[in-house]
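Q: My labmate handed me this sequence with no annotations at all. I'd like to see what the chain might look like in three dimensions before we decide whether it's worth expressing. Could you predict it?
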Amino acid sequence: MSDATKDDALSDDLPDADILKALAPYVAKDGGAGAGPLRIRDVERRQLVRCDVVRFTERRTETQRTAFGTEDLSALPLYEGAIKDHPLPAPEGPARLTLIRSGSYRLVPCPCDNGTQRCASCSGDGRHPCSCRNEPPTCDVCLDVAPCTQCETTGRRRTRTTKARPAATGARATGAQRITCAVCGTADAACPRCSGRGRIRCPLCDGRGHETCARCSGRGVGTHEVCGGRGCLSHWVEGTVEYANEKASLWLPRPDWPDKVRDRLAGAARWRQRDLPPGGGVPAGVDDEHRAAVSAHLARGTVELSRRVTLETCPLARVELMDDPNRVFYVFPGTRRLEVVPTLSNQLKRRLIAAGAVIVIIVVLIMWLAA
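A: Here is what I predict for the chain of 371 residues:
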């Protein structure tokens, strides 16, 4: 279709006389030049196309599957050979089918100890050496005083020639100042924290010299991760067939008009539905500038079983009037009459932006002078 033929076709759908008649109420209502006839300064007509294709598709895949232990697959249907060649009844709608390749199921014993293995964290000991190395920590209360005023951890009372060091005081002191010594038995002589020993039990291992392995809880063995503790593995080939409705939408040309125009087009425009030929090609009545894109959109896919196509067109006119330079009007057929969406012209937008910039500059100068 040549440009001249296209313009003629669009002019037939949106003639100048009908456009001016539709614009008259808007110009008169807004105080425009209603005394004389409206004059068109510029009009640009274009064809809008929207096309929705719903393809009913079939996709087949094969996957090597593995599971812990014994897997019960008796309820799944079998297929021979490759899944792509397996005959299936015609589907009624979207669905997902799972099948098993005949003879592919294998049960393989795992080289472990009935689903368990030696704990790698503690090497099977069930415990770890404590950081205290079996040496109880020094008492933090009697660090610089006598653990026991009589025996000083020896267990034997002796006659002192010097005065015994006093008990700890302040923040390091706990409980009574002195208690019965657990080493020599002297009352009121020992440090209240270590009972005269000079050392305390390790808080990590409680004096045992080792800690229980957290990974195996002290058992020395853990679950074999390869088989999940089942002692064997199941292998098989799984075929999957998926039937789905896949929708693809196309809108031409790319919208370059305000959002309110797009919203009105979607809700109020009278779209003309085009009938597609049996082969699925681009129907007559679609402009040459859109035909290549529509043809690519309608291309049949390799997994397509059937399709539903909705292809619609609608003319749109962008109109500028001689007596209303501040607005641009978008006109298109509606359900009962021509729909009109007025918008601000680019010229008016530039003036408004310039005026706003001037106002900002004036405000800044006033604030600067006031300061």
